[in-house]
Write a structure and sequence with these properties.
The protein has 245 residues and is α/β, with parallel strands linked by helices. The chain is built from 9 helices and 7 strands. It has a 7-stranded mixed sheet, sandwiched between helices. The radius of gyration is 18 Å and the shape is globular. This is Methyltransferase domain-containing protein.
């Protein structure tokens, strides 16, 4: 069982692959999609939940999603058909970091996927290449709420505190026009769902060759969250415009 399959199972009950509740997602999309927006792109779209909600909210909008996981893209296609937005959705199996499109987009989304680009600033640099004049970027990434342990840094990477994170974004030529810091309830709900969905699948498939691995992955993730990073890790979502357009 590879990382992509584990992620799909873990997000079965929390299709937005970030620690955000439904109201937070709606508000972020409301701020990201200006009136008259025509196209939205999600880099690292996974199961496509951001795109599906955006398309449902604006009937004239067209969406494109990019991901390396065919299983995730298949799930997005099936969900788009069920929600009646499939004719306005185009999905690409491709590495998001070097994806190229003939279209410019009014909103570029990349939430919880900065690892695919090598960090927050490289993700923003990639998003910039797809952005239409006056367009916006909706990005979500982690930060340190408190000084982390060396183990937490090893587990989650070289993050910054919230103020430094935002300052680096501004220094890279972006202006925040909206933001949301995930609440403790959102963070805990996401982690409980992640570990619980994966563990539940493992217990329901005890005879599956991947069952033991899935249960071990859920157990390891839960332990890392509770013992290592729960009290120091946060998640910020930003809606950004280019400072010089």
């Amino acid at each position: 069982m590879d990382r992509q399959q584990i992620s799909l199972l873990a997000h079965a009950d929390h299709p937005v692959a970030s620690p955000l509740d439904d109201d937070s997602v709606r508000r972020l999309l409301d701020h990201g999609l200006r009136p008259g927006a025509e196209r939205v792109l999600d880099l690292g779209c996974g199961g496509g939940e951001w795109l599906l909600r955006a398309l449902a909210a604006q009937p004239a909008l067209k969406g494109e999603g990019v991901d390396v996981s065919e299983d995730a893209l298949s799930r997005a296609r099936e969900a788009a058909i069920k929600r009646g937005v499939h004719e306005r959705l185009t999905l690409h199996r491709h590495d998001a970091a070097d994806f190229d499109s003939p279209h410019a987009f009014d909103l570029v989304i990349s939430s919880g996927a900065t690892h695919a680009f090598g960090g927050l600033l490289p993700t923003l640099a990639a998003a910039r290449t797809h952005l239409a004049p006056g367009g916006r970027v909706l990005i979500g990434d982690g930060f340190w709420e408190r000084t982390p342990s060396p183990e937490a840094v090893e587990m989650l990477g070289d993050l910054m505190d919230l103020a430094t994170t935002v300052e680096r974004v501004v220094d890279a030529g972006w202006t925040p026009v909206h933001g949301h810091v995930s609440t403790r309830q959102e963070l805990d709900a996401y982690e409980w769902s992640w570990t619980g969905s994966l563990a539940g699948w493992a217990l329901d498939h005890r005879d599956d060759p991947d069952g033991a691995q899935a249960l071990a992955a859920a157990t390891a993730h839960r332990s890392g969250w509770l013992r290592v990073y729960r009290d120091c890790w946060g998640f910020v979502s930003l809606v950004l415009r280019r400072t010089a357009d």
